[in-house]
Amino acid sequence: MPEPRRSTIDAGEVERFSALAAEWWNPNGKFRPLHKFNPVRLAYIRDQVAARFGRDPRAARPFEGLRFLDIGCGGGLLCEPMARLGAEVVGADASATNIEVAKLHAAEVGVSVDYRATTAEDLADAGETFDVILNMEVVEHVADIDLFVAKCGQMVKPGGIMFVATINRTLKALGLAIIGAEYVLRWLPRGTHQFGKLVRPEELEKALGAAGLIIIDRTGVVYHPLADRWQRSKDMDVNYMVLAEKRSV
């Protein structure tokens, strides 16, 4: 008998996020932390893409002509801003429920996004390629991180880039991102993150390297309670983002 095909999908994680799908666009709901987090993510993506592709970040549609994939897109919190900046956006999520919510919202606000209920491996095996891949808050929820990063890396065009945002596997992250955020402050539903699935930067760098990508920028992201906002930092002990490039042949 042939070996079963490897999958990046963690069914429990898909079920958990599907159950919350109606909350995606409620800034005061279960995804409030992501809404708070979004400005720092968007600014980082805008500035880095503009720098790498020679675009003016202050232009109305600086990403015109660039093809983006938001893998694990959820309700489309990143897809819609990227489309408004001119990108051709594919939003992919393993949860069909999330995709339906994303499609409805995009239709309501008049933004064009190609939403698909699919997986990284299916997209890669179909030969899809992109200038930019957004891999944000996803790697800590997949079943096979090496396979997931490999399939995402396969889809990055030579000279293209991939953003990865995730949570470090440190005691500080356990205290702040899991115990603090989920059990004390209740910013997130309990069980959103599992400590053993969090990813250290060196583990991510190894997986990216095996996928043919090299990290060209990295930053921590920290929350300032007095200002009630997130901002970039040198501290990568909890939340962090990296930018990786596939070198042109």
Describe this structure in words.
By secondary structure, the chain is α/β, with parallel strands linked by helices. It contains eight helices and eight strands. The chain has one domain (11-246): Rossmann fold, CATH 3.40.50.150. 37% of the residues lie in helices and 24% in strands. The chain has an eight-stranded mixed beta sheet with strand order 3-2-1-4-5-8-6-7. It starts with 10 loop residues before the first helix and ends with a strand.
The SSE string, one letter per element, is HHEHEHEHEHEHHEEE
**Spatial arrangement of strands, main beta sheet:** 3-2-1-4-5-8-6-7
Q: Mind summarizing the main beta sheet?
A: 8 strands, mixed
CATH-level-2 architecture:
3-Layer(aba) Sandwich
| Global shape | globular
Structural class, judged by helices and strands?
Answer: alpha/beta
The total count of strands amounts to 8
What are the segments in which pLDDT stays under 50 over at least 5 consecutive residues?
A: none
CATH topology: Rossmann fold
Keywords: Methyltransferase, S-adenosyl-L-methionine, Transferase, Ubiquinone biosynthesis
GO molecular function, one term: 3-demethylubiquinol 3-O-methyltransferase activity
InterPro entries: SAM-dependent_MTases_sf (IPR029063), UbiG_MeTrfase (IPR010233)
Catalytic activity: a 3-(all-trans-polyprenyl)benzene-1,2-diol + S-adenosyl-L-methionine = a 2-methoxy-6-(all-trans-polyprenyl)phenol + S-adenosyl-L-homocysteine + H(+); a 3-demethylubiquinol + S-adenosyl-L-methionine = a ubiquinol + S-adenosyl-L-homocysteine + H(+)
